[in-house]
């Protein structure tokens, strides 16, 4: 029995020797940060890869989300999802904004467009949806609602690197989209993130904001932050771009392998692969239903006992955390689908270097626990 820990993810890394020329370049020209040549090259190549016009690199997605809200001068209340990583809502609090939680669609795990309008008040100025697990939000309906009510839309696209719908980047929707390049993501620069803007003017404002608000050497146009990606992280990003397609292909194979194994397994449901979508297979969430012998948490603990570290993304709901639970929209009765997802979903390990034996090891625990009930 292999007892080596098997984590929910393991970062992909480019070959170490490929980094050497970039290190020499940085060491020779001594430009370490503040929009150096590698930063510029990475922005250009990333925009090409993603099929978008304007990219602004950041130190991480959280600072990028905070800056995106600043760039659009969002105020008052923002409609968002409780079923996300806590950074989504934290970016609102860091801007003095009030999150208004709206329930999710139980099939896509994304904000339910049906429920958005009822949550709009005179104070609402924006919607911040999340493309959860890289599954595209209903961008058309969300945009329609935003247009009718004059709201901004900022997509938390932390999970949506490379995702396309009908052949077009999902990042082209809304007023801004914000990516994460954290170590645990499909595409990583160790830490990192980016904002995708629709036009050069917005990108310019964002670029000022991530550099303390400097518009030129002596002019500060806003209370900006330091959100700049440095040259070393940009170099990693450039190298990762050479391998990301292969990484996504490997993830797709693992995804398929799991699905084949779990077909017909009572009480275990895999998520539907979204239609007309080039997906990135960033996560492998399963629903653990009452028909399974163990509860979701019992399965989580059983896997852990056997060295498999799955994750309950996203439990607890953001709306259940102490700094949010007092909000009227955080009431459990307002969020039945999100509550159910938080109690049923388990994300199994998925990463490009995962072997057949690793997949078998995870599946074995699930199958074994399922068959015990039949004996
Ligand atoms: N919006 C959404 C929707 C997000 O999901 C996130 C982040 C953000 C915004 C904010 O993005 P950033 O500001 O981080 O760019 C992780 C990540 O820290 C977080 O980035 C991510 N979402 C969230 C879903 O997951 P944890 O607490 O699960 O990380 P951790 O350290 O427990 O890592 C999980 C497993 O991965 C470990 O058990 C082992 C493995 N691992 C991890 C790291 C960091 C490695 O093998 N190597 C590593 O370097 O939060």
From TrEMBL:
Positions of post-translational N6-(pyridoxal phosphate)lysine modification = 185
- Molecular function as annotated in GO: dTDP-4-amino-4,6-dideoxy-D-glucose transaminase activity; pyridoxal phosphate binding
Q: Which UniProt keywords apply?
A: Aminotransferase, Pyridoxal phosphate, Transferase
Matching InterPro entries: DegT/StrS_aminotransferase, PyrdxlP-dep_Trfase, PyrdxlP-dep_Trfase_major
Matching SUPFAM superfamilies, A to Z?
Answer: PLP-dependent transferases (SSF53383)
> Superkingdom of the source?
Bacteria
Gene Ontology biological process terms in this record:
polysaccharide biosynthetic process
Specify the protein name: dTDP-4-amino-4,6-dideoxy-D-glucose transaminase
Which residues of this protein are catalytic?
185
Q: Which Pfam families match?
A: DegT_DnrJ_EryC1
Q: Please give the family membership noted in the entry.
A: Belongs to the DegT/DnrJ/EryC1 family.
Native source organism of the sequence: Novimethylophilus kurashikiensis
Q: What is its EC number?
A: 2.6.1.33
